[in-house]
């Protein structure tokens, strides 16, 4: 979708703001900017991505009916990064900004999906940037939002949907401003901040029965929360399991014997 680039730049005069009608991946561009100019903060926004990425390098469908943004921040080499916390907190920031601008109550599906009711409407992808000496120099916070997107590839595991039925450039610009304002307020501590307590309130998996694909096996159980590092806690009926990765195949409020 189109935005007001001049307004965005005026709002953040000390940052490098770039807008592309089409780009491979906003995260890739932001990653390169950090490597080229360590110490500089900025934002890469696109109307469309041709090589958008999600978790585990999965394709992130990115047509012109959405907005795709990667905010990059410099980090000191001595920074202790907690990626799970960052992903959770950025998810809360985006969900709250969407609610303020569009009035829509988004939920978060572990680990980085944004949902409106039973439809996926966005995703978060946070990536650390290191220099040639393997020292941490920056953080890229990527987000893709299906503002008006109504058609999706049949290969998607979950049904996608739009955030709203109508939106304009002013509203989308407002959304990006609110997201970046919230992130900039946290820029000095974002890498290590504890998970925002609102995260569990927004979690659509809390107290749900789930099936998780863990490549070599499947785990079924009830979600009881997350660890301080945003690992999923699942009671499988015998013990409390800590899940660090995996794909949520299904979730529901009823007990496991109601699963097909």
TrEMBL record:
Signal peptide (residue range): none
Any one GO CC term of the record: cytoplasm
One Pfam family this sequence matches: BPL_LplA_LipB
UniProt-recorded name of the protein: Biotin--[acetyl-CoA-carboxylase] ligase
Enzyme Commission numbers on file: 6.3.4.15
GO biological process, one term: protein lipoylation
GO MF annotations, alphabetized: biotin--[biotin carboxyl-carrier protein] ligase activity; transferase activity
Keyword line: Ligase
Alphabetical list of Gene3D superfamilies matching this protein: Bira Bifunctional Protein, Domain 2 (3.30.930.10)
BPL/LPL catalytic domain sequence ranges: 21-142
Ligase among keywords: yes
EC main group: ligase
């Amino acid at each position: 979708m189109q935005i007001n680039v001049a307004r965005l730049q005026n709002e953040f005069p000390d940052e490098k703001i770039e807008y592309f009608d089409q780009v491979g991946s906003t995260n890739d561009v932001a990653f390169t900017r950090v490597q080229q100019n360590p110490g500089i903060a900025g934002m890469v926004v696109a109307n469309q991505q041709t090589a958008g990425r999600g978790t585990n390098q999965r394709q992130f469908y990115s047509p012109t009916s959405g907005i795709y943004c990667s905010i990059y921040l410099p980090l000191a080499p001595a920074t202790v990064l907690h990626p799970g916390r960052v992903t959770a907190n950025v998810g809360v920031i985006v969900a709250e900004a969407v609610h303020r601008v569009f009035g829509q109550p988004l939920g978060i599906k572990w680990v980085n999906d944004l949902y409106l009711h039973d439809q996926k409407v966005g995703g978060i992808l946070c990536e650390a940037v290191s220099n040639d000496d393997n020292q941490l120099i920056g953080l890229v916070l990527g987000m893709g939002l299906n503002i008006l997107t109504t058609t999706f590839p049949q290969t998607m595991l979950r049904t996608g949907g739009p955030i709203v039925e109508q939106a304009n450039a002013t509203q989308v610009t407002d959304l990006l401003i609110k997201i970046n304002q919230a992130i900039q307020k946290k820029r000095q501590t974002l890498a290590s901040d504890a998970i925002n307590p609102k995260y569990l309130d927004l979690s659509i998996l809390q107290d749900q029965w789930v099936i998780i694909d863990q490549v070599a096996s499947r785990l079924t159980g009830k979600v009881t929360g997350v660890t301080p590092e945003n690992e999923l806690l699942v009671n499988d009926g015998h013990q409390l399991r800590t899940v660090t990765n995996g794909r949520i195949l299904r979730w529901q409020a009823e007990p496991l014997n109601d699963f097909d």
